[in-house]
Write a structure and sequence with these properties.
The chain has about 140 residues and is mostly helical. It has one domain. It has helices at about 1-20, 20-40, 60-80, 80-100, 115-135. Helix 2 packs across helix 3. It is flat, with a radius of gyration of 18 Å. The mean pLDDT is about 90.
Length: about 140
């Protein structure tokens, strides 16, 4: 979790300097290079290649692009903490929907009162953090 906040802050500054799209390109290019090296040196051979998996499973990378561009644009405006809490709130909300309905091949986990309460608490925290940002400016 801490690494994502540091990454968001760094990429936000880079985005202000070179632009959102270029910042995203640099991030993904460096990430792809490092990942390729890690695969080459440390990943054992797989029985199934990437070309053989269901194509919908490859779409996750598109969400990474959206996430990166939103964070690069949002961090300079609302700050790293608020942007991170917004991401966590969205992750929890979508995660609860995926669990509840068993989407994307995951087992269904029923939506409970405690899960809803956790979501409400996180949403309230986001509101408080955002309001404290706007008051200090």
């Amino acid at each position: 979790g801490a690494v994502l906040s540091v990454q968001a802050a760094i990429n936000g500054r880079l985005g202000q300097t070179v632009g959102v799209l270029r910042s995203s390109l640099v991030t993904f290019a460096v990430g792809a290079l490092v990942t390729a090296l890690l695969i080459f040196f440390f990943e054992p051979a797989q029985a199934v290649s990437l070309l053989e998996v269901p194509k919908w499973q490859l779409t996750g990378a598109l969400f990474g692009v959206v996430y990166m561009m939103v964070m690069v644009g949002a961090v300079p405006v609302v700050g790293t903490a608020v942007a991170t809490v917004a991401v966590i709130t969205g992750q929890l909300g979508m995660g609860m929907l995926i669990d509840n309905f068993g989407w994307l091949g995951n087992p269904a986990i029923e939506l409970s009162g405690s899960r809803i309460l956790a979501m409400v608490c996180l949403a309230v925290a986001l509101v408080f953090m955002y309001r404290s940002n706007t008051r200090s400016q």
